[in-house]
From TrEMBL:
It comes from Glaciecola nitratireducens (strain JCM 12485 / KCTC 12276 / FR1064). The keyword Hydrolase does not apply. S-adenosyl-L-methionine binds at S220, C253, P254, G255, G256, D272, D292, D309. The active site is at K338. GO terms for biological process: methylation; rRNA processing. Gene3D superfamilies: 3.30.2300.20, 3.30.70.2810, Vaccinia Virus protein VP39. GO terms for molecular function: methyltransferase activity. This is Putative RNA 2'-O-ribose methyltransferase.
Length: 392
Protein backbone atom coordinates (compact mmCIF):
# COMPACT_ATOMS: atom_id res chain seq x y z
CA UNK A 1 0.00 0.00 0.00
CA UNK A 2 1.15 3.54 -0.67
CA UNK A 3 0.46 6.96 0.77
CA UNK A 4 -2.47 9.15 -0.20
CA UNK A 5 -0.07 11.78 -1.47
CA UNK A 6 1.09 9.33 -4.14
CA UNK A 7 -2.49 8.34 -4.97
CA UNK A 8 -3.34 11.99 -5.54
CA UNK A 9 -0.30 12.40 -7.76
CA UNK A 10 -1.22 9.28 -9.69
CA UNK A 11 -4.65 10.69 -10.40
CA UNK A 12 -2.95 13.64 -12.06
CA UNK A 13 -0.78 11.47 -14.29
CA UNK A 14 -3.45 10.87 -16.89
CA UNK A 15 -3.73 14.61 -17.50
CA UNK A 16 0.05 14.87 -17.78
CA UNK A 17 0.29 11.81 -19.98
CA UNK A 18 -2.54 12.79 -22.30
CA UNK A 19 -1.80 16.49 -22.25
CA UNK A 20 0.94 18.68 -23.59
CA UNK A 21 3.90 16.68 -22.23
CA UNK A 22 3.07 13.51 -24.16
CA UNK A 23 2.52 15.51 -27.37
CA UNK A 24 5.89 17.16 -27.04
CA UNK A 25 7.82 13.93 -26.52
CA UNK A 26 7.32 10.95 -28.77
CA UNK A 27 9.59 7.99 -28.15
CA UNK A 28 9.59 4.22 -28.15
CA UNK A 29 10.83 2.37 -25.11
CA UNK A 30 11.15 -1.36 -24.53
CA UNK A 31 13.20 -1.23 -21.34
CA UNK A 32 13.51 0.54 -18.02
CA UNK A 33 16.65 1.23 -16.03
CA UNK A 34 16.55 1.18 -12.24
CA UNK A 35 19.25 2.31 -9.82
CA UNK A 36 19.91 0.54 -6.52
CA UNK A 37 22.56 0.12 -3.84
CA UNK A 38 25.61 -1.82 -4.99
CA UNK A 39 25.22 -5.50 -4.15
CA UNK A 40 21.42 -5.44 -4.23
CA UNK A 41 20.98 -5.98 -7.96
CA UNK A 42 19.61 -9.52 -7.60
CA UNK A 43 17.08 -8.37 -5.00
CA UNK A 44 15.84 -5.55 -7.22
CA UNK A 45 15.71 -7.90 -10.22
CA UNK A 46 13.54 -10.35 -8.27
CA UNK A 47 11.26 -7.52 -7.22
CA UNK A 48 10.91 -6.19 -10.78
CA UNK A 49 10.00 -9.62 -12.09
CA UNK A 50 7.24 -9.88 -9.49
CA UNK A 51 5.95 -6.42 -10.44
CA UNK A 52 6.07 -7.50 -14.09
CA UNK A 53 3.87 -10.50 -13.38
CA UNK A 54 1.44 -8.49 -11.24
CA UNK A 55 1.01 -5.83 -13.94
CA UNK A 56 1.01 -8.28 -16.88
CA UNK A 57 3.87 -6.38 -18.50
CA UNK A 58 6.16 -9.25 -19.26
CA UNK A 59 9.90 -9.24 -19.75
CA UNK A 60 13.11 -10.07 -17.94
CA UNK A 61 15.72 -8.43 -15.71
CA UNK A 62 19.36 -8.08 -16.70
CA UNK A 63 22.20 -6.83 -14.52
CA UNK A 64 25.90 -7.03 -13.80
CA UNK A 65 26.65 -7.88 -10.16
CA UNK A 66 27.83 -4.89 -8.11
CA UNK A 67 26.96 -2.44 -10.90
CA UNK A 68 24.21 -0.73 -8.84
CA UNK A 69 21.76 -0.90 -11.76
CA UNK A 70 19.17 -3.30 -13.17
CA UNK A 71 17.66 -3.04 -16.64
CA UNK A 72 14.26 -4.59 -17.26
CA UNK A 73 13.57 -5.52 -20.89
CA UNK A 74 9.96 -5.77 -22.04
CA UNK A 75 8.82 -8.13 -24.78
CA UNK A 76 6.64 -5.38 -26.25
CA UNK A 77 7.07 -1.61 -26.49
CA UNK A 78 5.51 0.43 -23.71
CA UNK A 79 2.63 2.77 -24.42
CA UNK A 80 2.96 6.39 -23.31
CA UNK A 81 0.66 5.69 -20.38
CA UNK A 82 2.76 2.69 -19.35
CA UNK A 83 5.94 4.75 -19.57
CA UNK A 84 4.41 7.24 -17.15
CA UNK A 85 2.67 4.90 -14.73
CA UNK A 86 3.86 1.28 -14.73
CA UNK A 87 6.48 -0.04 -12.30
CA UNK A 88 5.77 2.84 -9.90
CA UNK A 89 8.96 3.86 -8.13
CA UNK A 90 7.12 4.29 -4.83
CA UNK A 91 6.07 0.64 -4.98
CA UNK A 92 9.59 -0.71 -5.55
CA UNK A 93 11.45 -1.30 -2.29
CA UNK A 94 14.96 -1.68 -3.69
CA UNK A 95 14.83 0.88 -6.54
CA UNK A 96 16.24 4.38 -6.13
CA UNK A 97 15.37 5.67 -9.59
CA UNK A 98 13.20 4.62 -12.54
CA UNK A 99 14.07 5.56 -16.13
CA UNK A 100 12.55 4.68 -19.51
CA UNK A 101 15.40 3.83 -21.89
CA UNK A 102 15.39 4.78 -25.56
CA UNK A 103 18.87 3.57 -26.49
CA UNK A 104 22.63 3.91 -26.24
CA UNK A 105 25.07 6.13 -28.09
CA UNK A 106 28.73 5.47 -28.83
CA UNK A 107 30.74 8.65 -28.46
CA UNK A 108 33.65 7.80 -30.72
CA UNK A 109 34.71 11.40 -31.31
CA UNK A 110 36.10 12.56 -27.98
CA UNK A 111 36.38 16.10 -29.35
CA UNK A 112 32.66 16.35 -30.16
CA UNK A 113 30.55 14.00 -28.07
CA UNK A 114 27.65 16.45 -27.95
CA UNK A 115 26.99 16.31 -31.70
CA UNK A 116 26.61 12.53 -31.50
CA UNK A 117 24.05 12.89 -28.72
CA UNK A 118 22.09 15.66 -30.44
CA UNK A 119 22.02 13.71 -33.72
CA UNK A 120 20.78 10.61 -31.91
CA UNK A 121 17.96 12.56 -30.28
CA UNK A 122 16.93 14.10 -33.60
CA UNK A 123 16.83 10.69 -35.27
CA UNK A 124 15.14 8.73 -32.48
CA UNK A 125 12.76 11.13 -30.73
CA UNK A 126 10.32 13.89 -31.54
CA UNK A 127 11.23 16.60 -29.08
CA UNK A 128 9.52 19.95 -29.42
CA UNK A 129 10.04 23.34 -27.83
CA UNK A 130 10.73 23.30 -24.09
CA UNK A 131 9.61 19.68 -23.72
CA UNK A 132 12.29 18.74 -21.17
CA UNK A 133 12.39 20.05 -17.61
CA UNK A 134 16.02 19.22 -16.80
CA UNK A 135 18.98 17.00 -17.67
CA UNK A 136 21.19 14.71 -15.62
CA UNK A 137 24.55 13.25 -16.63
CA UNK A 138 24.85 10.24 -14.33
CA UNK A 139 26.96 7.23 -13.47
CA UNK A 140 26.66 4.08 -11.40
CA UNK A 141 26.88 4.61 -7.64
CA UNK A 142 29.92 2.45 -6.94
CA UNK A 143 33.68 2.97 -6.73
CA UNK A 144 34.33 2.60 -10.46
CA UNK A 145 31.38 4.84 -11.22
CA UNK A 146 32.88 7.57 -9.10
CA UNK A 147 35.75 7.72 -11.59
CA UNK A 148 33.19 8.75 -14.22
CA UNK A 149 31.61 11.32 -11.89
CA UNK A 150 34.17 14.03 -12.68
CA UNK A 151 33.53 13.64 -16.40
CA UNK A 152 29.75 13.81 -15.85
CA UNK A 153 30.07 16.98 -13.80
CA UNK A 154 32.15 18.72 -16.48
CA UNK A 155 29.98 17.44 -19.33
CA UNK A 156 26.65 18.56 -17.84
CA UNK A 157 27.05 22.30 -18.55
CA UNK A 158 27.90 22.10 -22.28
CA UNK A 159 25.30 19.36 -22.74
CA UNK A 160 22.64 21.50 -21.10
CA UNK A 161 23.62 24.43 -23.31
CA UNK A 162 23.36 22.27 -26.44
CA UNK A 163 19.88 20.99 -25.57
CA UNK A 164 18.75 24.49 -24.73
CA UNK A 165 20.13 25.74 -28.05
CA UNK A 166 17.99 23.14 -29.84
CA UNK A 167 15.00 24.52 -27.94
CA UNK A 168 14.24 21.22 -26.19
CA UNK A 169 15.10 22.27 -22.65
CA UNK A 170 13.03 24.67 -20.56
CA UNK A 171 14.70 27.95 -19.62
CA UNK A 172 14.62 26.93 -15.95
CA UNK A 173 14.33 23.50 -14.30
CA UNK A 174 10.68 22.41 -14.45
CA UNK A 175 9.65 19.43 -12.33
CA UNK A 176 6.35 19.19 -14.19
CA UNK A 177 8.10 18.05 -17.38
CA UNK A 178 10.04 14.90 -18.27
CA UNK A 179 13.76 14.88 -17.44
CA UNK A 180 16.37 13.43 -19.76
CA UNK A 181 19.14 11.27 -18.27
CA UNK A 182 22.49 10.44 -19.84
CA UNK A 183 23.93 7.44 -18.01
CA UNK A 184 27.65 6.99 -18.66
CA UNK A 185 29.55 3.74 -18.15
CA UNK A 186 32.61 5.70 -19.29
CA UNK A 187 33.25 8.77 -21.44
CA UNK A 188 32.85 6.84 -24.71
CA UNK A 189 29.28 5.54 -24.34
CA UNK A 190 26.05 6.57 -22.67
CA UNK A 191 22.52 5.27 -22.28
CA UNK A 192 19.79 7.84 -22.94
CA UNK A 193 16.62 7.63 -20.87
CA UNK A 194 13.71 9.71 -19.64
CA UNK A 195 12.04 10.07 -16.25
CA UNK A 196 8.52 11.34 -15.77
CA UNK A 197 6.75 13.58 -13.23
CA UNK A 198 5.30 11.85 -10.16
CA UNK A 199 7.16 8.62 -10.89
CA UNK A 200 10.81 9.42 -10.29
CA UNK A 201 13.27 10.61 -7.68
CA UNK A 202 13.99 14.28 -8.23
CA UNK A 203 17.68 14.13 -7.26
CA UNK A 204 20.69 12.86 -9.28
CA UNK A 205 21.20 9.09 -9.00
CA UNK A 206 17.96 8.90 -7.02
CA UNK A 207 19.89 9.82 -3.88
CA UNK A 208 18.63 12.05 -1.07
CA UNK A 209 21.80 13.70 0.17
CA UNK A 210 21.14 15.19 3.58
CA UNK A 211 23.35 17.34 5.74
CA UNK A 212 24.29 15.78 9.05
CA UNK A 213 23.14 18.07 11.89
CA UNK A 214 26.10 19.16 14.01
CA UNK A 215 24.23 18.54 17.26
CA UNK A 216 22.82 15.11 16.34
CA UNK A 217 24.24 12.26 18.47
CA UNK A 218 24.68 9.75 15.62
CA UNK A 219 24.48 9.46 11.84
CA UNK A 220 21.48 7.15 12.16
CA UNK A 221 19.43 10.33 12.46
CA UNK A 222 19.71 10.69 8.67
CA UNK A 223 17.79 7.44 8.15
CA UNK A 224 14.71 8.76 9.92
CA UNK A 225 15.02 12.19 8.30
CA UNK A 226 15.21 10.62 4.84
CA UNK A 227 12.22 8.39 5.59
CA UNK A 228 10.12 11.34 6.73
CA UNK A 229 10.99 13.39 3.66
CA UNK A 230 10.52 10.52 1.21
CA UNK A 231 7.41 8.90 2.67
CA UNK A 232 5.42 11.99 3.64
CA UNK A 233 4.39 15.04 1.69
CA UNK A 234 4.82 18.43 3.42
CA UNK A 235 1.09 18.37 4.20
CA UNK A 236 1.39 14.95 5.82
CA UNK A 237 4.42 16.02 7.82
CA UNK A 238 2.50 19.00 9.18
CA UNK A 239 -0.42 16.76 10.14
CA UNK A 240 1.46 13.75 11.46
CA UNK A 241 4.44 15.32 13.24
CA UNK A 242 2.93 18.09 15.30
CA UNK A 243 4.52 19.77 18.29
CA UNK A 244 3.26 18.21 21.51
CA UNK A 245 2.72 14.73 20.09
CA UNK A 246 4.12 11.67 21.86
CA UNK A 247 6.42 8.86 20.73
CA UNK A 248 8.30 5.78 21.86
CA UNK A 249 11.77 5.09 20.43
CA UNK A 250 12.79 1.44 20.86
CA UNK A 251 16.55 0.92 20.76
CA UNK A 252 16.98 4.66 21.11
CA UNK A 253 20.58 5.13 22.29
CA UNK A 254 22.45 7.33 21.71
CA UNK A 255 19.45 9.16 20.26
CA UNK A 256 19.75 9.55 16.49
CA UNK A 257 16.07 8.87 15.84
CA UNK A 258 14.94 10.59 19.03
CA UNK A 259 16.76 13.70 17.76
CA UNK A 260 14.46 13.93 14.73
CA UNK A 261 11.35 13.70 16.91
CA UNK A 262 12.58 16.15 19.54
CA UNK A 263 13.55 18.66 16.83
CA UNK A 264 9.86 18.67 15.89
CA UNK A 265 8.71 19.24 19.47
CA UNK A 266 7.57 15.66 20.08
CA UNK A 267 7.82 14.11 23.56
CA UNK A 268 9.79 10.84 23.43
CA UNK A 269 10.02 7.81 25.71
CA UNK A 270 13.53 6.61 24.82
CA UNK A 271 13.86 2.88 25.51
CA UNK A 272 17.30 1.24 25.66
CA UNK A 273 19.93 -0.02 28.05
CA UNK A 274 22.63 2.33 26.77
CA UNK A 275 23.21 6.01 27.44
CA UNK A 276 21.29 8.82 25.75
CA UNK A 277 23.01 11.98 24.57
CA UNK A 278 22.99 14.60 27.32
CA UNK A 279 21.93 17.29 24.86
CA UNK A 280 18.70 15.41 24.17
CA UNK A 281 17.99 14.82 27.85
CA UNK A 282 18.49 18.53 28.49
CA UNK A 283 15.59 19.42 26.17
CA UNK A 284 13.04 18.21 28.71
CA UNK A 285 11.27 16.31 25.93
CA UNK A 286 12.94 12.93 26.55
CA UNK A 287 12.04 10.38 29.20
CA UNK A 288 14.70 7.67 29.42
CA UNK A 289 13.51 4.12 30.10
CA UNK A 290 16.07 1.35 30.71
CA UNK A 291 13.97 -1.58 29.54
CA UNK A 292 13.64 -4.44 27.06
CA UNK A 293 12.17 -3.07 23.85
CA UNK A 294 10.15 -6.23 23.27
CA UNK A 295 8.45 -5.95 26.68
CA UNK A 296 8.09 -2.19 27.05
CA UNK A 297 4.65 -0.59 27.39
CA UNK A 298 4.03 3.14 26.82
CA UNK A 299 3.63 5.09 30.06
CA UNK A 300 0.13 6.36 29.27
CA UNK A 301 -0.89 3.31 27.26
CA UNK A 302 -0.73 5.02 23.86
CA UNK A 303 1.57 7.24 21.78
CA UNK A 304 1.22 8.93 18.42
CA UNK A 305 4.42 7.37 17.07
CA UNK A 306 6.45 4.23 17.57
CA UNK A 307 9.92 4.29 15.99
CA UNK A 308 12.38 1.43 16.11
CA UNK A 309 15.91 0.80 14.86
CA UNK A 310 16.75 -2.24 16.98
CA UNK A 311 19.31 -4.74 15.69
CA UNK A 312 17.06 -7.79 15.80
CA UNK A 313 15.73 -10.45 13.45
CA UNK A 314 13.30 -8.82 11.01
CA UNK A 315 10.55 -11.32 11.85
CA UNK A 316 10.58 -10.29 15.52
CA UNK A 317 10.54 -6.57 14.74
CA UNK A 318 7.74 -6.90 12.16
CA UNK A 319 5.63 -8.87 14.64
CA UNK A 320 6.27 -6.33 17.41
CA UNK A 321 5.32 -3.35 15.24
CA UNK A 322 2.14 -5.11 14.13
CA UNK A 323 1.14 -5.85 17.72
CA UNK A 324 1.61 -2.22 18.77
CA UNK A 325 -0.69 -1.07 15.96
CA UNK A 326 -3.29 -3.80 16.51
CA UNK A 327 -3.33 -3.17 20.27
CA UNK A 328 -3.70 0.58 19.62
CA UNK A 329 -0.57 1.35 21.62
CA UNK A 330 0.67 3.52 18.74
CA UNK A 331 -1.13 5.34 15.95
CA UNK A 332 1.69 5.07 13.42
CA UNK A 333 5.19 3.69 13.14
CA UNK A 334 8.49 3.97 11.31
CA UNK A 335 10.91 1.09 11.76
CA UNK A 336 13.84 -0.73 10.19
CA UNK A 337 13.95 -4.37 9.18
CA UNK A 338 17.49 -5.76 9.16
CA UNK A 339 18.09 -7.84 6.04
CA UNK A 340 19.43 -11.40 5.78
CA UNK A 341 22.28 -12.33 3.45
CA UNK A 342 20.14 -14.21 0.91
CA UNK A 343 16.66 -13.92 -0.63
CA UNK A 344 16.26 -10.47 0.85
CA UNK A 345 13.38 -9.40 -1.36
CA UNK A 346 11.43 -12.61 -0.84
CA UNK A 347 11.75 -12.39 2.95
CA UNK A 348 10.90 -8.69 3.12
CA UNK A 349 7.93 -9.11 0.78
CA UNK A 350 6.62 -11.92 2.96
CA UNK A 351 6.92 -9.87 6.14
CA UNK A 352 5.17 -6.88 4.60
CA UNK A 353 2.39 -9.13 3.31
CA UNK A 354 1.94 -10.57 6.82
CA UNK A 355 1.72 -7.09 8.34
CA UNK A 356 -0.79 -5.94 5.72
CA UNK A 357 -2.94 -9.05 6.05
CA UNK A 358 -3.04 -8.78 9.85
CA UNK A 359 -4.02 -5.10 9.79
CA UNK A 360 -6.69 -5.81 7.18
CA UNK A 361 -8.08 -8.68 9.26
CA UNK A 362 -8.32 -6.31 12.22
CA UNK A 363 -10.01 -3.76 9.92
CA UNK A 364 -7.32 -1.18 10.63
CA UNK A 365 -7.20 1.31 7.79
CA UNK A 366 -3.58 2.02 7.00
CA UNK A 367 -1.00 3.16 4.48
CA UNK A 368 2.32 1.34 4.22
CA UNK A 369 5.50 2.47 2.51
CA UNK A 370 8.80 0.59 2.43
CA UNK A 371 12.16 1.54 0.92
CA UNK A 372 15.82 0.66 0.93
CA UNK A 373 16.93 4.21 1.66
CA UNK A 374 20.23 5.75 0.67
CA UNK A 375 21.16 6.12 4.35
CA UNK A 376 20.15 2.52 5.10
CA UNK A 377 22.73 -0.21 4.87
CA UNK A 378 21.65 -3.85 5.16
CA UNK A 379 18.12 -2.93 6.15
CA UNK A 380 14.95 -1.37 4.80
CA UNK A 381 12.78 1.31 6.38
CA UNK A 382 9.02 0.90 6.70
CA UNK A 383 6.37 3.49 7.56
CA UNK A 384 2.79 2.62 8.48
CA UNK A 385 0.22 5.37 9.02
CA UNK A 386 -3.12 4.62 10.66
CA UNK A 387 -6.05 6.46 12.17
CA UNK A 388 -5.75 10.20 12.67
CA UNK A 389 -2.48 10.31 10.71
CA UNK A 390 -4.19 9.36 7.44
CA UNK A 391 -4.94 12.08 4.93
CA UNK A 392 -8.36 11.62 3.37
Amino acid sequence: MISNSFNQETSNKDSVCQGSSSKRIALESKSMLFYCREGYEADLAAELEQVSANQHLYGYSKFVPHNAMVQFHFYESLSTKQQFESFALDDCIFARQRLCVIGSVELTDAADRISSIVDYLKNNTELSQHSLGDIFAEHADHEKGKEVAKFCKKFTVPLRQALRKEGWLSSKPNSGLPFIHFVFSDSSECTIAFSYPKNRHSQPLGISRLKFPNDAPSRSTLKLEEAIQLFMSPAQQSLCLQKGMTAVDLGACPGGWTYQLVSRGIHVEAVDNGAMAETLMATGLVSYQAADGFKYQPVDGHVDWLVCDMIEKPERVAELMTHWLCDRKATSTIFNLKLPMKQRFQIVAGLIANITNTLNERQIKHQLRAKHLYHDRDEITVMILTGAHLLE
